[in-house]
Specification:
Blueprint (H helix, E strand, L loop, with lengths): L3 E8 L2 H10 L6 E8 L17 E8 L10 H15 L6 E3 L3 E4 L2 E13 L2 E11 L7 H4 L5 H7 L8 H20 L3 H12 L4 E9 L2 E10 L5 E5 L4 E4 L3 E4 L11 E4 L7
Parallel strand pairs: 1-2, 11-13
Antiparallel strand pairs: 2-3, 3-7, 4-5, 5-6, 6-7, 8-9, 8-12, 9-10, 10-11
This protein binds biotin (BTN).
Length: 269
Amino acid sequence: MDVTVLHFDTIDSTNTEALKQARLGAEEGLCVVARQQTAGRGRNGRVWVSGKDAGLYFSIVLRPKVETQYLPLITLMAGVAVHDALAEYGIEADIKWVNDLLVGERKICGILAETTETDRGLAVIVGIGVNLKSSNFPLELAETATSIEEELTAAGNSGGISGEALSETLTRYISYFYVLLDSPEGPAAIVEEWRRRSSYFSGKRVRVVLDGETVNGTTDGLEPNGALRLRKDDGEVLIVQAGDVERVRPERMEAGGRITITGRTPFGL
Ligand code: BTN
């Protein structure tokens, strides 16, 4: 994939700009990067705090050829790519379904995938926010979020990484895994790559918030399209297409049971 980068000093949201560019006919591989966002968006209508040079604010335009049923795998593919980009700097992250990157259970990166119809067909915008510094975290994030600078300092490596360097590393991994996803065995390969990098794949005791209702259970692998299988305490298996997952302390579980598909919208898209 050929990559072109549009740099902004300040922008409302790199995702909003990438959506606009996609509708104007931008080629796949166009990346929008900004030093700060004034209206950074997170999943489920949340705000993404985006102070100047405190994070990487990055969005890429994709025009996927993969079958529609596998489109949700784009967001898992992005999580795998961010995982490997961070690993290049010695940061070992976990991936929490569907696409939060955690270090020591604190969030270092979030991913927001959005779609738009364009004259050239469907475009998917993958927006990635990586915390470079912890200094401007609001109080409510200080305990639940971490940053590259904080993790490198804790490991005895002073100094952080520039957004520019990280953006280059990231585009290299996105290109690699995106091409993999488009190959005949791509969807299964992406699920497998995700499994290798995530402790949430199976056997993790979690709480999932689905349309305002909280369900407890244990993760039980992913469906071929990346949906999360959640085994409830009564043995019923829910296929979770959308929802927020939180880890809870382990306890004894029983196995067996029915399968129910839940979540109104495809996750991450
Ligand atoms: C999440 O809620 O975890 C997803 C956060 C995604 C934030 C990134 S920052 C770059 C891009 N532009 C946005 O407005 N959001 C995404």
